[in-house]
Design goal:
Layout: H1 11-31, H2 38-58, H3 62-80, H4 85-117, H5 121-144, H6 157-176, H7 181-258, H8 262-275, H9 288-303, E1 307-312, H10 322-340, E2 349-357, E3 364-372, H11 395-406, E4 410-416, E5 419-427
Parallel strand pairs: 1-2
Antiparallel strand pairs: 2-3, 3-5, 4-5
Length: 433
């Protein structure tokens, strides 16, 4: 390998570097979702190819080339893809080390064949075939391994740092070309195999964790739906009872009127006014799902001594699915009411606005929920920090954001001057993703 420093750059080597850069790009996109498209992404790809060629020109030392390649691929993935820094470092080191090991093995067989058959072109042919095969294999991996969405850092973060660093150390020992190089080569091959296995294992663990989270989210949505159905049932039962009593009251009033007993008629009306202190519906927006959610949460808040303030307009034209409305409104109001539990009863209040705007294209629903809250460090922290179910910590606002993102809605979550505010402009249109 040391003799390679004096070799001139040939077209075959340039083609090999470009094929390697393309293979590494495809493999990175197999693990990380892309966030750039169109001409910007094409320009970034060209910069990556140029960066790889520049490393070939500037240095012919294997270790320097490997570090240059890793640095370029790390930057490319960070700009073009959505990824955590620790996992990106793990993937980049593993991919580059794997390419180095396979490349050295290919060089060994290529040199052996070239010397055995006394054909110099066999060396370049072997390398070119290897890089072409690597692009095809990378493309197949990209097709069969769709990238997972970026999630929060997991507890296995130390694993993603230890093995790549150890691989870099062994790679440096191999590139030094000392007498123990065969042993270092075997160690590097073993480490690369371990890195690949760990990478696949971590992917499996990430997938399992995401499936567990989805089960929790689904369970939370089912709970909200059950509460809404219960609220509708209670409202319907109360309405039937009122309708039945209303007929009896009409009969009584009619009898008193026929007797022309005005004193008894006035007394009976006053008694009715005193009994009808509770309204069946706190909110009437002319939208069944919204009314069910707001009234159910409104009465739940009143039972907790919370002043529930609702402001709505006519939502009869709203076309958003009831399930999504239940997730967003249910979680926001649950968080607000739980945040109020930390305050004395006279300081507990929740203000909720739902205003439908049909003059824009498409029409949109403006919603906001404001409540007093203890200080929070950032929007990522769920204001319901004392949720009764510990396994559901953090899922409230996450569920809301997931739903709003599917409609490309604009939303903001902030804490200022003792108040927590969540507001959104929600397009009344089909889901976009």
């Amino acid at each position: 390998m040391a003799g390679a420093a004096g070799m001139t750059i040939t077209p075959w080597m340039v083609l090999g570097v470009l094929c390697a850069a393309e293979a590494e790009r495809l493999l990175c996109e197999a693990f990380f979702p892309r966030r750039m498209t169109g001409s910007r992404y094409l320009a970034l790809r060209l910069c990556w190819y140029a960066f790889a060629l520049l490393g070939l020109i500037l240095s012919r030392k294997y270790m320097l080339q490997a570090l240059w390649e890793m640095a370029g691929l790390y930057l490319f993935c960070g700009i073009a893809c959505q990824s955590r820094r620790s996992r990106r470092f793990f993937v980049v080191v593993t991919l580059c080390s794997l390419r180095q090991v396979l490349g050295w093995c290919t060089q060994f067989f290529a040199l052996s064949a070239s010397f055995a058959y006394e054909r110099d072109w066999l060396y370049e042919g072997f390398l070119c075939g290897f890089y072409g095969a690597s692009v095809v294999c990378a493309w197949m991996v990209r097709r069969c391994h769709p990238p997972m969405p970026v999630s929060d850092t997991r507890v296995w973060l130390p694993v993603t740092a230890f093995f790549p660093l150890l691989t870099l150390m062994v790679l440096g020992a191999v590139a030094s070309g000392d007498e123990a190089m065969p042993l270092w080569m075997f160690s590097l091959l073993l480490l690369v195999i371990i890195d690949v296995a760990d990478l696949l294992l971590l992917d499996h663990l990430e997938m399992g964790a995401r499936e567990h989270e989805q089960l929790l989210v689904t369970g939370e949505r089912v709970r909200i739906q059950e509460e809404n159905l219960q609220a509708l049932s209670q409202a319907y039962t109360a309405q039937r009872k009122m309708t039945h009593d209303f007929r009896a009251h009409l009969d009584m009033l009619e009898g008193l009127a026929e007797q022309e007993n005005l004193g008894a008629l006035r007394q009976y009306l006053n008694e009715l006014r005193q009994q009808q202190t509770e309204r069946i519906l706190l909110v009437n927006s002319h939208h069944a799902a919204v009314d069910a959610i707001l009234n159910q949460k409104g009465y739940a808040g009143q039972r907790q001594g919370i002043d529930m303030r609702f402001q709505v307009n006519d939502l009869s034209a709203l076309q958003l699915p009831g399930v999504d409305l239940a997730v967003v409104l249910g979680n926001l109001l649950d968080n607000a009411m739980e945040a109020c539990a930390a305050f004395p009863q006279e300081q507990r209040w929740v203000e909720c606005k739902l205003l439908y705007e049909n003059t824009s294209q498409p029409p949109s629903l403006y919603l906001s929920v404001i409540n007093p809250s203890l200080p929070v460090e950032g929007p990522e922290e769920d204001s319901a920090a004392q949720r009764a179910e510990p396994s559901l910590h953090g899922f409230g606002l996450q569920n809301v954001a997931d739903v709003l993102d599917r409609y490309s809605a604009e939303y903001v979550c902030r804490y200022a001057e003792g108040y927590f505010t969540y507001s959104a402009d929600w397009p009344d249109c089909p889901k976009q993703i």
